Amino acid sequence: MDKSNPISCITFDLWNTLIIDKPGFGDNRARLRIESVKQTLFNIGEIFSEQTLEKAYSQCITYCNHIRTEGKDISFEIQIELFIKKIDPYLLSRLTDTDFSQILSSYLNPFYLYPPPVHPKASKILAKLSSDGYKLGLISNTAMTPGSTFRQYMDKQQILQYFDVLTFSDEVGLAKPSCKIFNITLNKLKAIPEETIHIGDDFDNDVIGALTAGMKVIWINSSSIKKKVIQPTYMVNDLEEVIKKI
Fold it and tell me: Which CATH superfamily is 9-21+117-245 part of?
């Protein structure tokens, strides 16, 4: 690390950086969401085919992914409302608050059945950086799982305690690669961009986003892709290598 411009703050991505999903877990969560929502709707007299739910689920994901590429996001409840409207444009108006809560739970619970494991070195690395005096932040796009759930999961896995600030896209209405979500986190940390390094695996979201915000970047490039016009400050193959770069 450049000693003339020392690092005082470190921010992390979450998905596939601190937690690493297992092959097939994403498909299992999607299948359970659709099955659970179908049963929940059936229980209140709303009958829809699995194909209808699958199409609505896919359309919801496509829409949410599109707005995140533009640096924006929506709350988890609005995401569920969108999903319901894709099933049937008039379904939402027929639901009670209790019905909506049950559907929300049906959509969310598969995360707990197929949780993405925490990287085996994550706790040790975070503890080391925290004890060395660095301020730590998290900047995460949330996709199909809300920030509130990630907080609970991180707490259960005993890594939440190391973070001074956590910024989730569904809670702030902004998403990586927008520099705005990085700036929000920097302001909360009272950090200077030039003295902050961001660590993440996604080139567009983490590397380009952080560099645009004026930060340094450690790119976790597990696939060893090298053909990039924009270069990160550092590149490693796995999270356990980041300590050597700081």
Answer: HAD superfamily/HAD-like (3.40.50.1000)
